[in-house]
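Quick question: who can interpret this fold?

. . .
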Amino acid sequence: MKHLIALLFVVAATTVTHANPHPNPMSYPYQTLNEGALELEQYADLVPVRVARENPDGTLDGVMGVRSVLQTEIEYGITDRIEFGFYFMLRQAASANTPFLRFQGVKQRVRVRLAEEGKWPVDIGLYFEIAELDNEFELEEKILLSKRFGDLTLVANLWVEQEWYYQTGDTKFIFNPTVAANYQINPKLFVGVEYWGRGRFDKANDVNDQLGANINDAPQKTHHFVGPTFLVQSGKVFLSVGAYLRLDSLGESVQVGDPFGRVWVRTALGLDL
C-alpha cells in the first residue's frame, strides 16, 4: 500500500497531460483520441467470490477466492472524432479446482464523437463493439453522454449487449447502464462517484446460467453497484481506480457460485504511445 501511495504522488507531481483518461473506470468518456494518436490501456477487475471446494471426505464447502478479468486495449485515433480499439481478454474464474488465468478472446470496437465538446446541450458519442470469446460471440452498443460544468463533469453510458453462447446455445440480452460524476481538483487529480448496473432483458435460464456462473458475467437478476473513484494523471500516463459496493442483497453473505460477489474493484492504467 505504501508503494502504491508513493506512485500516485509521483504521478501527480509531474507535468503536462496527454493521455485520454477515464476518471470513472466503468464509464467510457465522450472524448476520443486525436488523429494518429496511439494509447495502451490495461484494465483489471478484481471480485472477491465464494467458490465450492470438495474436501477429502467428499463433502463440499465454500472457500473465498478472487475472480479476475484482465483486458488490454490498444486504441488508435483514425480521425479527431473516430477512434478504433483492439482488445485482448484474460480471465481467472476463481474455481477451487482450476485457479489459473486463461486467454478468453479478443474484441474490436469503434468510438465516435458526434460533435465538438460544448456544441450541443449534451455531448454525445457512439460506441460499437464485436467480441469473439472462447465461450460466446458478443455485440455491444453504447450511447455515451457527457456534460461539463466547470470542474464538474457528469457522465452516463446507455449500454446494451447481445450474447450468443456456443456451449449452451443460449442467446442473452444484457443491459449495463452507468451514471457517474467526477470533479477535477487540479489537472492531475480527479475524484468522483459512479453507479453501474447489470441485468437482463430476457428471462434467465437457471440451469445454464448456474453452469456458467464463473465463466461469464450474464446475471440471473439485476445487480447494482456504487462507489468512489479517483484518477491521477501526468504526462503520458493515467491511473484510474473504482471500488464498488453491491447494493442488491445487502446484508446477505456471499453465495457459492455468485460471480458478482459483494465488492467489485476496477483499475485502469493508460499510457500514451
